[in-house]
UniProtKB/TrEMBL annotation:
Gene Ontology terms, MF aspect: methyltransferase activity; serine-type endopeptidase activity
Organism, scientific name: Candidatus Ryanbacteria bacterium RIFCSPHIGHO2_01_FULL_45_22
UniProt keyword Methyltransferase, yes or no: yes
Name of this chain's protein: 16S rRNA (Cytosine(1402)-N(4))-methyltransferase
InterPro entries cross-referenced by the UniProt entry: Methyltransf_25, Pept_S26A_signal_pept_1_CS, SAM-dependent_MTases_sf
A GO CC term assigned to this protein in UniProt: membrane
Alphabetical list of PANTHER family matching this protein: TRANS-ACONITATE 2-METHYLTRANSFERASE-RELATED
Pfam family, one: Methyltransf_25
Signal peptide as annotated in the record: none
Length: 234
């Protein structure tokens, strides 16, 4: 999928998103916490994780910091954000392998049952439903039995009224960009949110897909405003 919505100023100033999401760091930290808890009883020398949509590397840092045994393959199709990630993640050396590639193509090229963890943050909601359906099947294929799926994303609440309130609040928060003299970011992020509505994925839809693919212990680990973290064990 050639999604280039972050090749403009959204990619250049992606990390400024935390200005309008007060729980940004808490949300990211929870991803690391979920992975750390999952690995606490896993007896193996090396752990392979795939970060699907590595962005600027903020999530990847949490993944790598969760356990020293982890090695991460970070996949993204945007050069601007990958360049930022290379700087942020250089301290991890050979534990990180960044690849510029379409996510589905990269997963399809991955051997079956070779991955311990698939993690993704603020990525899956950007994909068309038909793309997502194939992607989830491929993720199920590459994960080892007992492997972890963890996705933190803009999962719409199942209750349409509650989701609408979350969306209205988020768009309202974009005025913070205008206050700092970045009306361009306010305009682009508002446009992005409106476009996302056409292909949104609900929390219930994601959980149903995982269960249908054979994932166990499917649950919502975190929910605040637009953001939710959903996990499942292969």
């Amino acid at each position: 999928m050639n999604d280039s919505r972050f090749s403009n100023i959204l990619g250049e100033d992606y990390d400024l998103l935390k200005i309008v999401i007060p729980h940004h760091d808490e949300f990211q930290d929870k991803i690391g916490e979920v992975i750390k808890n999952y690995l606490s009883s896993l007896q193996t020398d090396t752990i392979l994780a795939v970060d699907g949509g590595v962005g600027t590397g903020l999530t990847t840092t949490r993944i790598l910091s969760a356990d020293k045994r982890i090695k991460v393959i970070g996949i993204d199709n945007e050069e601007k954000t990958l360049n930022q990630a290379r700087q942020i993640l250089k301290e991890f050396g050979e534990r990180i392998d960044l690849r510029k590639r379409d996510l589905l193509e990269a997963i399809e090229a991955t051997p079956s049952q070779s991955v311990d963890i698939f993690a993704s943050v603020w990525v899956i909601h950007n994909f068309q439903p038909s793309y997502r359906q194939i992607l989830f099947s491929e993720i199920a294929r590459v994960l080892k039995i007992g492997g972890l799926f963890v996705s933190g994303d803009n999962y719409a609440r199942d209750n349409d009224s509650d989701h609408k309130k979350d969306l209205e609040n988020r768009i309202r928060e974009f005025t913070n960009f205008e206050k700092m003299g970045r009306i361009d970011l306010k305009t682009e992020w508002t446009k992005h949110c409106i476009e996302d509505e056409k292909i949104k994925i609900t929390e219930g839809e994601q959980m149903k897909i995982l269960r249908k693919l054979g994932f166990k212990d499917v649950s919502i680990q975190y929910r605040k405003e637009m953001e939710a973290i959903i996990t499942g064990v292969r």
